[in-house]
Amino acid sequence: MDFMNDKNTSLKQLKIFVAGHRGMVGSAIVRQLLAKGIAPEQLVTRTRSELDLTDQAAVRTFFAQEKPTEVYMAAAKVGGIHANNTYPAEFIYDNLMVQANTIDAAFRNGVKKLLFLGSSCIYPKLAPQPMAESALLTGFLEPTNEPYAVAKIAGIKLCESYNRQYGKEYGVDYRSVMPTNLYGPGDNYHPENSHVIPALIRRFHEAKVGNLPNVAIWGSGKPYREFLYVDDMASASIHVMNLPKDQYDAQTLPMQSHINVGYGSDVTIADLARTVGKVVGFTGQISFDATKPDGTPRKLMDSGRLHALGWAPKVDLESGLLIAYQDFMSTL
Ligand SMILES: NC(=O)c1ccc[n+]([C@@H]2O[C@H](COP(=O)([O-])OP(=O)(O)OC[C@H]3O[C@@H](n4cnc5c(N)ncnc54)[C@H](OP(=O)(O)O)[C@@H]3O)[C@@H](O)[C@H]2O)c1
Predict the structure, then answer these.
(1) For ligand 1, mutation pick of 30, 48, 150, 188 (most atoms within 8 Å of CB)
(2) How far apart are the C-alpha atoms of 281 and 303, rounded to whole Å?
(3) Which of 46, 67, 116, 141 is the most buried (most CB within 10 A)?
(4) What distance in Å separates the CA atoms of residue 309 and residue 315, rounded to the nearest whole number?
(5) Residue 135 reports pLDDT greater than 60
(6) Residue 289 per-residue DSSP state
(7) Which numbered atom of ligand 1 lies nearest the CA of 78?
């Protein structure tokens, strides 16, 4: 991995804005950048209360003053099904504004390299599995998070449109990555509003300390899902950001430029539950309540493009879950 694929910029000249640096993904990107030799003073960060990225004037002032050389866009309004269903206006408005303001202000202030983080929910509800980048805009989206997904699709199209209009003249090279389900340090363990892995970690932990004989999992346990440890996501993000342009271009198209980031294989919810139970040290029974809905039978990313670009994940599910469980324990 080479931070200096732009031959005019040396490592020390980099000034990197990580938007959303306190979030699960943004904090992992910061950890990885520091581990790869970026100095703390080369990183620019702002909390939401210091800089609300939905505020166009504030974002323009920030870029004009700080003049970052590159941007990782890990700031977004993120949530589960319940939050997406309850606050659809906020999910589409906030995300559209955050992206449009950041990408446009980056361009106006000479930022040549930007990485936008999307999500696997950009793909149609009935996309063929595994989901390839070419499935984008080929069918109807999952209705529960459609406003969020439409904003994310707009984010990809913003990057592509700035590349197409300004790429040649100004050297603009804005890229997009679409992560699968992520887990790891910094996750949200809220009892009602968390994703499947943090929810299972909490339930198995509470069952262990409460000496409960059984944990009942919603659904049959048969659907397959894919999970990626968040530090692997961060390393994939830095890898894609720093790929030489000819390599990135060889795997993408001007109007289909996003790259999937997945683990490459999936597990059943039943296997996931057993692995979480093992990691947590729960010794009781696990049962499955098949009267509850299962959702889509399978959701797996096709990560062939990224693998062709020389990246592979390092952290397997059980190792990642062990670290995630330690992180959960540190929040108690
Ligand atoms: N987690 C996953 O499983 C997953 C899966 C696929 C894709 N992604 C994508 O990865 C990205 C990061 O997700 P995450 O899980 O790290 O989310 P997260 O933990 O909720 O972090 C989001 C960050 O965005 C910042 N933010 C939100 N609205 C903002 C605003 N108006 N102005 C400034 N900052 C704002 C928050 O700042 P404060 O901390 O200051 O409030 C927070 O640091 C998102 O684009 C998401 O779609 C995540």
Answers:
(1) 48
(2) 32
(3) 116
(4) 19
(5) yes
(6) E
(7) 20
